[in-house]
Design brief:
The protein is α/β, with parallel strands linked by helices. 41% of the residues lie in helices and 14% in strands. It has 2 domains: 120 residues, Alpha-Beta Complex (Aspartate Aminotransferase, domain 1), CATH 3.90.1150.10; 243 residues, 3-Layer(aba) Sandwich (Aspartate Aminotransferase, domain 2), CATH 3.40.640.10. α4 crosses α9. The chain is globular and about 60 Å long.
């Protein structure tokens, strides 16, 4: 759909295209990031662009660990942190470290579709657990999905594509469920907690700690969203200090960072993010965009659970055929992603990391596409 937007814009005398397909942050990196980058470039130190330990610069890992100790209330050390090429790099390295061919990974729908490619690449078996109608964790569905060969559960909160933030209570219940399953199987079940939107939460909320709910957790993070750096590919994996395989996992993650071809995270941006762990983009601006788009979709007749974080809306479509509704939107030069690609048909994903003018410009076309679709029912 992103490429379709490029094609439409190249048409002669093209009308505006309203593209809500890609979660590409609209906000520039905070001033603290710009200053740290300027300092690193203008005052280089000898060897700053050379190889470093595959887990990353020790001073960077220690700074990330210090921040996580304060933020999560968990005694993470620098040794528990492995700097990676974004959250995707961290997720692939972690799965390679945890999964033998035939082991099972539980994924909760709706889900980020690239998880499937990551799991398949290490020979894992994917088991999908549905969420509730309002996208909360369905503990009964998760209990059914966890089997004797389950080694990993991927959690994504705030969630892409729904914006759902799982509560501390629900996470604690999930931790208790997994602990019961671990006692039955005799093997740890590790949560890979994919949290690139951890700081993008709305209405005064904070994201609770998954590590506090389940000791066998690896936090997967990226600075693509909270610092507006998606093109720089800088993130990390952080191992819970309570994980029984803590040291073995450190060694495995470090080795696989190299074995999978990442080698190490980008040197320059390790230096930058080490100094700005407390920073974040203006979340208030994303909240205002959420409110604007949510109101407009409601007025257009689309039902939608209000996102609590991230920058996506996941409204129901007027008919169960989400692809048909995507095509209806296209006629009005509005681009969306069908929910079936995220494991939940009858929905579309709309990214609101755009300008207010783009939202206002698209709403008449969305309203007309809803009317067209309902006329065919």
């Amino acid at each position: 759909m992103f490429e379709e937007g490029l094609r439409l814009r190249q048409e002669p005398n093209a009308a505006p295209v309203y593209d809500f397909t890609l979660g590409n942050p609209i906000l520039e990196p905070p001033t603290a990031v710009q200053q740290a980058l300027r300092e690193a470039v203008l005052n280089p130190t000898p060897g700053m662009h050379r190889y470093m330990p595959n887990a990353g610069y020790p001073e960077c890992r220690e700074r990330v660990g210090e921040y996580l100790r304060r933020d999560l209330g968990v005694p993470i050390e620098g040794e528990d942190v492995i700097m990676t090429s974004g959250a995707a790099g961290a997720m692939n390295v972690a799965l390679k470290s945890l999964i033998d061919p035939g082991d099972e990974v539980v994924v909760i729908a709706p889900y980020f579709p690239e998880y499937f490619f990551y799991i398949d690449s290490v020979g894992g078996v994917i088991t999908v657990a549905e969420s509730t109608a309002d996208f909360d964790l369905d503990l009964a569905a998760i209990e059914r999905a966890v089997g004797v060969r389950t080694r990993v559960l991927i959690l994504n909160s705030p969630n892409n594509p729904t914006g759902r933030l799982y509560s501390e209570t629900r996470l604690r219940e999930l931790g208790e469920l997994l602990a019961d399953k671990e006692r039955l199987t005799g093997a740890p079940i590790t949560i890979l907690s994919d949290e690139p939107y951890r700081k993008i939460v709305f209405d005064g909320r904070t994201a609770p700690s998954v590590m506090a709910a389940h000791p066998n957790t690896i936090l997967i993070n990226s600075h693509s969203k909270d610092l507006g750096l998606p093109g720089e590919r800088i993130g990390y994996a952080a191992i819970s200090p309570a994980h029984p395989d803590r040291r073995e996992l450190h060694n495995a993650l470090t080795f696989n960072n190299r074995a999978l071809g990442f080698v190490n995270a980008p040197a320059l941006f390790q230096r930058v993010v080490a100094d700005v762990q407390e920073a974040r983009v203006d979340v208030g601006q994303y909240q205002r965009l959420r409110d604007q788009f949510f109101r407009g979709l409601s007025q257009a007749g689309l039902r939608c659970v209000q996102p609590e974080g991230a920058f996506y809306l996941f409204p129901q479509t007027p008919t169960r055929d989400d692809m048909a509704f995507v095509r209806a939107l296209q006629r009005y030069r509005v681009l969306a992603v069908p929910g079936s690609g995220f494991g939940r048909s009858g929905h579309i994903r709309l990214c609101f990391c755009v300008t207010p003018e783009e939202i206002d410009g698209a709403l008449p076309g969305i309203e007309q596409a809803v009317a067209d679709s309902r006329a065919l029912i």
